[in-house]
Amino acid sequence: MSKPLPTHAQTVIIGGGSIGVNTAYHLTKLGMTDVVVLERDQLTCGTTWHAAGLIVAGLLKSEAECEIYTHGRDLYANLEKETGLSTGFSDVGYLQIANNEERVHEMRRLAPFMRRHNIDIVEISPQETKDLFPIGDLDDVLAGFYIEKDGRANPVDLTMSLAKGARMGGAQIFEGVTVAEILAKNGAATGVKTADGQIITAENVVICGGMWSRQLGAKAGINLPLQAAEHYYLITEDLPGLSRNLPVLEDPSTYTYYREEVGGLMLGLFEPGAAPWKLDSIPENFSFGEIEPDWDRVGPHLEKAYSRVPDALNVGVRKLFCGPESFTPDLAPLVGETPELRNCFVACGMNSLGILNGAGTGKVLAQWIYDGHPPIDVTGINVNRFTRHEATKAFRRDRGPELLGKMFGQHYHNDGYETARDLKRSVLHDRLAASGAWFAEGHGWEMPDWFAPSPEEAKIENYSWHRQNWWDWHAEEHRAAREDVIIMDMSTMSKFNVEGPDALSLMSRLSCNDVDVEPGRLVYTAWVNEKGGFEADLTVTRLADDKFMVVVGENSHGHTLMRMKRHIQDGEVVVITDLTPAITQINIHGPKARMLMEQVTSADMSNDAFPFMTWQDIDVGYWVIKAFRVTFVGELGWELQVPSYAANQIYDLLKEAGKQFGLRDAGMQTLNSLRLEKAYRDFGLDVDNTDNPIEAGLGFAVKLDKPGGFIGRDALAEIKEQGIPKNRMLQFLLQDPEPLLYGSECIYLNGQEVGHMQIGGYGHSLGGAVGIGFVGIDEPLKAAIVNEGDWEVEIAGVKVKATASLKPLYDAGMQKIKC
User: Which intervals hold domain FAD dependent oxidoreductase (predicted)?
Assistant: First the structure.
């Protein structure tokens, strides 16, 4: 007789694949032993059983990615010692090849960063590459990049070993139990109901249902945009002399990985133009299932894959396997507490990397549940980053085919998605296109990236890690901002009205700075968690005694809204309205911004009448709009909050009036270069939940003595009491004007590696690439060390001399902003 289900558990995990058992295992390691895993059929029956089991790093460009990967690699290599069950892990090595100069440059950029984070990737010669992978046709290879400790594991054995480890820690695992419903009350998950009507109450419910997660979440109103796609690998008959220790080879040019498989060779495809599978819903009874291969569609991709290992054509095909894997719209996982339900967590959408990233993700989620805060930067994987639009059938149908090829192909710093576009378009879109805008996509928004002289010229001729064809046009936009005036469509900024008798209490509770100011004032502030880690950086504007406007970047829309809602206390009356779709934000910046505005309004725009960090209602043409005197580019200017129905008229009026002042449209590339010259911080790009405002140089916006305090006040006070931090964010300017910065480049002080860049751009006014990054040393990082140190930044294997600064290298005294 099978063991009966409990009626209560501290944590119920839905799904018995790699992610579910990893989460259970790591929860028990934290002492949370009352854990129940419910698997609808048998462990591994969804997608885990047919995974390739690769334990390889790929190209990692964030600390979080490195931490997730290295934890899994180290755990899988040693788990058998703990459980007595083999994981099949074998460190056969991992080899990435580069057959063009751009790929070599990309690899050389990221290899030092990965080594900094305990991934021993080394560049090897073409001959060494051939020696490691003798069955390949590698004559076109310019360089190889090799990680000796990487390899492969057996997915089923690994999952069973983890399951045993979880049971050893107290977890209970039940197979043949289908969860039909997530139970909730008062906005919080309270347990689950099984298909046969049994109820298990719980403090936490965790969705680890793989490709079934979207439809299970939807029943509870939870938005989980992920879509299954056909995923192929081919296994050949035995290849004579093929070594069992052949390294795993990854080749972006063929969109294929290659590894030994029981004497044959496995060719795993991540082909462009993949096929979504079961757009409506995944069958509930699909277990250990396969999909009938589409030979006609996949044939050309297999031909390309074989071109790298032509000798494999001399043996037969043992198996062409097609099975589903689930993918997210941006190829990053869905992890964290859902915004729709408190105490409901999720880890799914692993993008075919569920074995590789299962342990690291399970550890992160377990710590998040246990501690209330994630232990790593989760801004790129947080489940609250998406809107409901990305989960629609049409979006999943159109974006799905692009994802596999995008994941495995060659990458550039500014390439983006081509499918499922025009999701969110400013009302100014057509006018911007007519002005020569090239649009990039960010969080569903069509964002002008740069402007060409004409619409016909608005195209990227060749992607590159070096200067592209739009470089000079972007430089002209930058110079216009510094010398004349620019106009920017910033409708992507998220805008929320927060009003009600307890609006001030909510805003004060969340904000490090003092927002209890006179109506008409703007306040720049950080929001932090109880540990002092960033949750947002934004402006809070007081519109009236009981009314505020919160403005934050488009990448923080869901997170900011969730944080505000979660911190309204019982009995408080606060109404939050998302005004983003209703307001078109038009920014006017530059030394001639005041002269331009005086041409279109009767309001007094002088510094005395309209000082920095204030707002007013002003007339522009036929309309009365809100003008905010604030800047993210380091120049005099205003952000105009325009009702969307008036935006086209106001844009036209400004463009016509601005001709005499050299007005230019400017895009996101220019926004980035301008703000980096001023060393302005941006949550989600430069700072994250593992950083704090003191070390990030934003202590001026933290008021530790403000009445009532704020969330995280005690943590920041403790950090402040420690004196000058040993870890600080600095600005860097390369002394050689030729190299470019994008982020993740390693930083050296007096020959010692001390940090890495968070982000970079080009300082056209400063005369070189500019970036910001955290530097950590063994003593307080005083100004003298910063100013007198010998600084270098490593770019593609070359160390470049740099100037470091605690203060902005452009207009440190803020005279241009406050004039």
Answer: 12-368
Distances (CA, A) of 702 to 506, 534, 537, 748, 814: 17, 12, 12, 30, 19
Cα–Cα distance, 342 to 576 (Å, whole number): 18
Residue 1 structure tokens? 């007789």
State which of 369, 386, 403 marks the end of a domain. Answer: 386
Q: Where a domain ends, among 580, 596, 624? A: 580
For residues 476 and 510, membership in a common domain is answered with no
* 162/75 Cα distance (integer angstroms): 10
pLDDT beyond 70 at 512: yes
pLDDT band at 3 (very low <50, low <70, confident <90, very high): confident
Chain-centroid distance, C-alpha 816: 33
474 and 513 together in one domain: no
349-353's contacts with Cβ under 8 Å and 24+ in sequence apart are 349/213, 349/224, 349/225, 349/226, 350/18, 350/19, 350/210, 350/326, 351/325, 351/326, 351/327, 351/403, 351/407, 352/51, 352/231, 352/270, 352/325, 352/327, 352/404, 352/407
What is the residue whose two structure tokens read 């994250």?
688
CATH code for the domain of 553: 3.30.70.1400
Is residue 398 situated within a structural domain? no
pLDDT tens column, 253-273 = 999 999 999 999 999 999 999
Report yes or no on 283 lying in a domain: no
Contact 672, 678 (CB under 8 A): no
Q: The domain that contains 380 carries what CATH number?
A: 3.50.50.60
CA 615 to CA 640: how far, in whole Å? 10
Q: 651-678 in b/e burial notation, b at 16+ Cβ within 10 A? A: bebbeebbeebebbbbbbbbbbbbbbbb
Q: How many domains does the chain have?
A: 3
pLDDT digits (tens, 9 = 90+) for 398-417: 999 999 999 998 999 999 99
Q: Tell me, letter by letter, the H, E, C secondary structure of 23-90.
A: HHHHHHHCCCCCEEEEECCCCCCCCHHHCCCEECCCCCCCHHHHHHHHHHHHHHHHHHHHHCCCCCCE
pLDDT of residue 488 exceeding 70, the answer is yes
Q: Are 10 and 206 in contact (CB under 8 A)?
A: no
* C-alpha–C-alpha distance, residues 436 and 430, integer Å: 10
Of 667, 688, 696, nearest to 772 by C-alpha is 696
**In terms of domains, do 540 and 672 share one?**
no
Q: Is residue 442 part of a domain?
A: no
- Report the C-alpha gap between 769 and 139 in whole angstroms: 36
The answer on 537 and 670 residing in a single domain is no
**Please, which residues bridge with residue 121 across strands?**
147
Q: 3-class SS at 224?
A: coil
Nearest CA-CA partner of 347 in 685, 37, 22: 22
CB 625 within 8 A of CB 643: yes
My answer on whether 479 and 533 are in the same domain is no
Distance linking the first and last C-alpha atoms of the chain: 81
Per-residue pLDDT tens for 588-610?
Answer: 999 999 999 999 999 999 999 99
**Residue 796 belongs to what domain range?**
469-483+665-691+724-819
**Would strands 623-628 and 615-620 be described as parallel, antiparallel, or unpaired?**
antiparallel
Q: Do 743 and 778 fall within a single domain?
A: yes
Decide the pairing of beta strands 317-327 and 768-776: unpaired
Tokens linked to 228? 């299954």
β-sheet with 664-665: strand ranges across: 615-620, 623-628, 637-643, 583-589, 486-489, 664-665
Do 474 and 528 belong together in one domain? Answer: no
Q: Yes or no: say if 332 and 380 are a contact pair by the CB < 8 Å rule.
A: yes
- Taking the mean position of all CA atoms in its chain, how far away is CA 7? 38
Q: Which amino acid is at 277?
A: W
Whether residue 479 is found in the same domain as residue 524:
no
Per DSSP bridges, beta strands 94-98 and 248-251 are parallel
Give pLDDT, residue 1.
37
Question: Model confidence over 196-220: pLDDT tens digits?
Answer: 999 999 999 999 999 999 999 999 9
Type of residue numbered 523: V
